[in-house]
Amino acid sequence: MLALVGLCMVLLVWWFSRPKKSPTTVPGPKPWPLIGSMHLLAGYETPFQAFTALSKIYGDIFSIHLGSAPCVVVNNFKLIKEVLIAKGADFGGRPDFTRFHKLFGGDRNNSLALCDWSSLQKTRRSIARTYCSPRFTSLQYDRVNNVGEEELDSFLAELSRLPHGQSCDVKPAVLKVCANMFTQYMCSTSFPYDDQDFQKIVRYFDEIFWEINQGYAVDFLPWLLPVYTGHMKKISHWATEIRQFILSRIIDKHRSTLDYNSQPRDFTDALLMHLEEDPNMNWQHIIFELEDFLGGHSAIGNLVMVTLAAVVKHPEVAKRIQNEVDTVTNNGARYPNLFDKAAMPYTEATILETLRTASSPIVPHVASRDTEIDGHQVNKGTIVFINNYELNQGKDYWEEPALFKPERFLTASGGIIKPAHFIPFSTGKRTCIGQRLVQCFSFVVLATLLQHYDIRAKDGVKVHPGCVAVPPDCFKLVLTPRK
């Protein structure tokens, strides 16, 4: 009892003796001992909804302690540009969450998305850019298009085996077509849909994508780690199994046929060649970079599922997409492809509107040095949350933001228009390098699905605000072949 009273006294002294804030200190709620201000996030489906509510009290930039971690939240486009573009060099770090380390072999810096910025990471992005950000007029863009078209026969064969007219799990088929598009494009390798190891790895990738999009108390309260021992073992197992699959089923095959005197056949060849040429690169960098980009198929599969959820809720959207795809393919004489995008602006706009309404969070940044935001002091090590939920849902940025309206991304003449404040893939030097692949393959998969099927749901669909991921076992859909 005396020890408990003593602890309470110490905490009270700490509470009331904390230094007063100066005019340059970021305003924000006063933290509680141990948990900081985590209690203020309760009652919201996503922390970013709470951040938006708190910004109405403390302003467009405010501080908040989550556990013992000092954080700053920026809520308007001007401040977000300052963090991501004008002072991008000051905010090149990522949060040091235990989960991130578990997912990437004990060191989150193995991941391009979750690493701190460095010259090595700049080199790794440079290797990937040609393949993961193909320009419209490039040979790589042609390759993306060809891969997309070639995989559609297998995809439609898989869909034909589902029970039509009944509720069924569509997500596994969507993930497998996306996975094979990625492995074929990046590794010149694809897998039968009934390959059990392939199915298992696609599932593990999806589990990890859902995991990355979730927040856990242990991220900010590391003393809870013993409670999460089983969870940490599970995510480490997923990552290890994926790595072993990539090594045995992809990389070993490439190494045995690689000709170092020829041009690289694909992204995997380019990585292996660079390993021989650059003394700063090691084997770990190569396998984790390939894993990073192959995992991008999960983002596409989940984006397609969230788009289908919107289409089910708004059947008029599906009809307009079907009209576009029927027109460009001469009523189904061929599959849609990437070069149809210009003639199918409503389909592309539907994907953009899905990204807006999903408002998936941008990975938090961390101040890599003592710096400022809008004249406010920000100390090294401070986690900075980019509240793109407000950018995507705020009335200051959109008319009728609660409505699903793909036409908001269309000009009067029917072209695509994207406001500057629409940054679903972030911006600045840490923008998502694979965003073009995401938009390309999601377009092909969505257009092909609606070309061949009418889609509805008997039991409704559930998506999560502020999240482009849906659970691995998510809503079921009813597919009816179109006549």
Can you describe what's shown?
By secondary structure, the protein is of the alpha+beta class. The protein contains 17 helices and 9 strands. It has helices at residues 2-17, 47-58, 77-86, 98-103, 119-132, 139-160, 171-187, 196-212, 217-220, 229-257, 267-277, 283-294, 296-313, 315-328, 345-358, 388-393, 435-452; strands at residues 61-66, 69-74, 167-168, 365-366, 371-373, 376-378, 383-386, 453-456, 477-481. The strands form 3 sheets. Strands 1-2-7-4 form a 4-stranded mixed sheet. Strands 3-9-8 form a 3-stranded antiparallel sheet. The chain is globular, with a radius of gyration of 24 Å.
TL;DR?
Belongs to the cytochrome P450 family. Helix content is 50%, strand content 7%. The chain is α+β, with helices and mostly antiparallel strands and 483 residues long.
Give the key terms.
483 residues; 4-stranded mixed sheet; 3-stranded antiparallel sheet; globular
Helical proportion, percent range: 40-55%
* Unreliable residue runs: 10-17
For the largest beta-sheet, the strand count, sense and barrel status come to:
4 strands, mixed
CATH homology superfamily name = Cytochrome P450
Number of domains: 1
CATH topology: Cytochrome p450
- Major sheet: arrangement of strands: 1-2-7-4
Radius of gyration: 24 Å
Order of helices and strands: HHEEHHHHEHHHHHHHHHEEEEHHEE
Specify the oligomeric state. single chain
Counted by DSSP, the helix tally is 17
Binding site for heme: 432
Family: Belongs to the cytochrome P450 family.
Main location: endoplasmic reticulum
Keywords: Endoplasmic reticulum, Heme, Iron, Membrane, Metal-binding, Microsome, Monooxygenase, Oxidoreductase, Signal
